[in-house]
């Protein structure tokens, strides 16, 4: 496998691991701070809306991470394609 491709895979894996770790910590901290564990279990539409409002910041993390990884992989892919075309 190409060295540059291995580097890309390594960077994406490291970023994903860091992101997942940060997200789990953030979700745990949100649940503890908002005392969401004290609420009864409910799957109604209103309950899900309330939960979504409480953890809306975490959804923004997922969105930002998706944009970041997509941009990074696209740029790196273009670089690899140009280097392959050039040689």
From TrEMBL:
The keyword Membrane applies. The chain crosses the membrane at residues 7-28, 64-86. Keywords: Membrane, Transmembrane, Transmembrane helix. It comes from the Bacteria. This is Uncharacterized protein.
